[in-house]
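chain below, 389 aa
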Amino acid sequence: MSPLPAVRPPGQSSIVVLAIAAFVIVTTEFLMVGLLPALSRDLGISVVTAGQLVTLFAVVVMVFGPVLTASLSHFGRKRLFVAVLLLFAVSNAVAALAPNLWVLAFARIVPALALPVFWGTASDTAARIAGPERAGRAVSRVYLGISGAMLFGIPLGTLAGDLIGWRGAFWLLAALSLLVAALLHQTMPAMASGERVSLAEQARILRCPRFVADVLLSVLVFTAMFSGYTYLAETLERLAQVPAAQVGWWLMGFGAVGLAGNWLGGRWVDRSPLATTAGFCLLLAVGMGATVLLAASHAGLALALAVWGVANTALYPVCQIRVMKSAARAQALAGTINVSAANAGIALGAIVGGLSISSWGIASVGLVGAAIALLAALGAAWVGRIRPA
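prediction:
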């Protein structure tokens, strides 16, 4: 299939709107991380069991993402993005009303179906706006929504959950989803959609060994990231003895330093995607390991979390752009396959982290994550030996 032509209008303003939407979407996905302790107490379940809601979300994204994105790739982008935000509003309202774990699990399935459609098409749209030479920077601007969610959305949601309960936090997120849907409808111009292309034709990228290797590398990277991040709030409470009312502020600091990682990742990934991946994986290993070793000292803990936060946030756009660059003729599908790969890693990370807590205690999750991050850095060197198609 031929690549879609680069889009000139509506320019950079559309990227800003997409970043705002990304903020809401990432906050919806990861708010659960900050609410795990309170949610587990309220529903009478263990933190490890509640943590599997993160796994459920990730598995749904992984399984259904590529098929849904390929099937909807011909829809107008504005209409598609608005529909995604409306689905997020409904699902957050259902989560707020959930009387038990099963209804809450169902409420997580709806946004999990819509999330990969957004990320695949939003990344592709931003890359088309900017052109191939600046695709990395454009996608990193959309991914500022991730940094914004970690800086404000997730921590403030955690604080709101402490003040008004975890249900109140989901109600606030439902209202915000509606507001952003209205913003998209009012401000984002209609954009040309691609022609309908069969899933089989788009799936030809899976025949490329380098593309498949890049996708597998993303699985490993995100497994490393989320073996620790899924249980970060619990780590701060139990290992570092941070008072529950202050955990949200620590998570906000984690997100704040992530802004630097997002900027650095966007600048460097266009030059050398694999080297940038390896470098940030090494930094991730240092930060996660140091968080455990320095947990007794809040000054040392803050420094370790800063290193972890920079690497963690940088790897989102780095992995997305690396995979999209290896499949230039089907970037929307490639971006969504990477999102599925990332969510496979998120699911594995939540499982691995939960198993390590059950077997060796809360201190183990940072060390296990650091070891996997080192493997990912080695994996990036191995992928570099595979010749692109």
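Residues 73 and 260 are 32 Å apart (CA to CA). Confidence is low (pLDDT under 50) at residues 1-10.
thats it, cya
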